[in-house]
Design a protein that fits this description.
Radius of gyration: 25 Å
Strand order of the largest sheet: 3-2-1-4-5-6
Number of helices: 21
Structural class: alpha/beta
């Protein structure tokens, strides 16, 4: 009876939410004046005249890009098509990058391009058209009755009392809708780990189920390739999974104009949760061969890798950090009131609402589970000092933080300390004996410096075999109990970690000459972006490095793109035809 009452109120709440969404959609339809002149917009809709934007740099870019596209002479298109995902209306850089990749694939395979876009996203549509894309599939998230239908289906898929416990295992039409729903929930609404909002869980579950339905209809068409940017969240996660299940090749790029790009090809459904940057065993072994006799640590130092441990600028500027320098290990121990006769173990939690399920295996269900259970276990282990350092980008993500979990679980133990979020310890590796992380960059950084590292899930560097990787919770907790006895990594492990690190410092990445280098992760700097891109020399093929990388990748049937300069330097001595997709 209680369940039926809750479900009834959930339905009422859902109807109210959908009505709000419909009103929001209606208001957005009248916001065209923010980007367009009313008369021009009217003439475009009624008389089919050219649509102009108030931002003159957008018009300039579109005109120039259209002219370049018209000069291309791609003939004799084959039947297979390329589908490109353009579903991020508030950020044009990744949408343009997806178009550029689709054009490179089109040049290689002679396939026509179809764009998947949000309904009423005029800017993205015009960008796509400037690349010669004429065919569109429109994704409409606001179909009232269809949304209500899938919410009712979600309520019937799992019992109200069981949704928190069972959601991670839920499937619909053979797809992992539960993981997709939980991923969305934990990213945007995770304010209390002890109790989840069941209405929101059902809401995201219904959206995941609807996304599967839409994706299955889309991939009834025979596409040669699906170009997609983000592989997380609804609907992208389910589009990605459904495309692989339909035997469609997937091309996904990682990076931004600031850190450069690397692309990955996916072929098999079994790789749907594989870490995007995880090199194959073939490629890992090739890199080990190339670098095994080279001295790397000084190169890593020169590139700023060691100096920036813990405050790397991966996506954009981090928060203002206060840096502390300790002149000796004794002063470090004194600062934290640690016992200097004990080893110090550094625990590095992730930005826990990001990349929750992007790995082939994991000892724990989520990064939250790993961290909270680790804190509980170490509170009972007194023979070492435990130091917890939050992720430098955690502040960019909403929801429960590492400190929130620590404060809730901690036992006021002198040997367990938490580093303040605004603090950076200069050369902290000099004071640490062992590191524990789920799958973070610390795995290769600290191992490179001779410090043993424990990882608890599949990582981008797993095929280099340089961390301690327990495969179940019993093995992991057993390692924690004898953490003071774990030896330093072997010379081979240290070398392999350094090899991965050097490749991670942009040796394999490459730039795209068209895209301006602007730090804008999280907040799209629209005015600046279009000002700079409208001034760029738009030559996608003749002088563009990343296009060269893609061409090499396709010819050799390689999982990842390889910097073309790196490839040309070593191709005579080593075989880069890996066929490792």
């Amino acid at each position: 009876m209680i369940n039926k009452i809750f479900i009834f109120f959930f339905l009422i709440k859902y109807f109210v939410l959908e009505i709000k969404n419909q009103l929001h959609l209606l208001l957005n339809k009248f916001k065209f004046y923010e980007n367009h002149n009313f008369l021009n917009y009217f003439e475009h809709k009624i008389l089919n005249k050219k649509l102009l934007f108030k931002n003159k740099n957008i018009n300039k870019f579109l005109k120039k890009n259209t002219q370049i596209t018209e000069q291309e002479k791609i003939k004799n298109f084959k039947k297979n098509k390329i589908l490109v995902e353009l579903l991020l209306p508030h950020h044009s850089e990744p949408m343009i990058m997806n178009c550029l990749i689709a054009k490179d694939l089109q040049k290689f395979y002679k396939s026509q391009i179809v764009a998947l876009i949000n309904k009423d996203d005029l800017l993205t549509k015009k960008i796509a058209e400037s690349f010669g894309i004429k065919n569109f599939i429109y994704l409409n998230k606001y179909k009232f009755f269809k949304n209500v239908y899938y919410f009712i289906l979600a309520l019937r898929l799992v019992n109200y009392n069981d949704i928190e416990k069972k959601i991670i295992k839920l499937k619909f039409s053979g797809h992992e809708v539960g993981k997709a729903a939980l991923e969305n929930y934990l990213r945007w609404h995770n304010t209390d780990l002890s109790k989840k909002d069941k209405f929101l869980l059902f809401l995201f579950l219904s959206r995941s189920m609807l996304a599967v339905n839409n994706a299955k209809n889309i991939f009834k068409e025979n596409y040669k390739f699906f170009v997609i940017g983000e592989l997380q969240f609804i609907p992208n996660k389910l589009l990605f999974h459904c495309s692989l299940k339909s035997k469609t090749f997937v091309y996904s790029n990682f990076g931004t104009s600031i850190i450069n790009f690397i692309g990955r090809l996916y072929k098999n459904y079994k790789d749907r949760n594989s870490v995007q940057l995880k090199f194959s065993k073939k490629f890992s072994n090739l890199l080990i061969k190339i670098f095994k006799n080279k001295s790397l640590i000084n190169i890593i130092k020169k590139k700023g890798g060691i100096a920036n441990i813990g405050k790397e600028i991966v996506w954009s500027n981090t928060q203002n950090l206060k840096t502390i320098k300790f002149q000796s290990k004794n002063k470090f121990y004194k600062h934290f009131d640690f016992d200097k006769n004990k080893k110090t173990i550094l625990i590095l939690p992730h930005a826990m609402s990001d990349n929750l399920f992007n790995n082939e295996w994991n000892v724990f269900d989520t990064a939250y589970d790993w961290y909270s259970q680790t804190i509980k276990k170490i509170s009972k282990i007194d023979k070492v000092n435990w130091l917890i350092k939050p992720h430098p980008y955690e502040y960019k993500f909403p929801g429960v933080t590492a400190r929130d979990i620590f404060e809730k679980i901690k036992k006021n133990k002198k040997n367990v300390q938490f580093i303040n979020e605004g603090l950076h310890i200069h050369e902290i590796y000099k004071f640490i004996d062992l590191v524990i992380t789920g799958n973070g960059s610390a795995g290769f950084q600290y191992t490179s410096l001779g410090i043993p590292t424990i990882t608890t899930s599949d990582t981008k560097y797993s095929n280099f075999n340089f961390t301690l990787s327990p495969r179940n919770q019993n093995e992991y907790f057993s390692l924690l109990k004898k953490v003071d006895k774990i030896p330093k990594p072997s010379k081979k492990m240290i070398k392999n970690a350094q090899i991965y690190w050097i490749t991670n410092l942009n040796i394999l990445y490459n730039s795209h000459n068209l895209l301006p280098k602007i730090k804008q992760h999280g907040l799209f700097k629209k005015e600046l972006f279009f000002k700079k891109i409208s001034q760029a020399k738009i030559d996608r093929y003749k002088k563009n490095s990343f296009s060269d990388d893609i061409l090499i990748q396709l010819k050799n049937k390689n999982r990842h793109s390889i910097n073309s300069l790196f490839y040309k330097k070593y191709r005579k001595k080593y075989n880069f035809k890996l066929n490792d997709i």
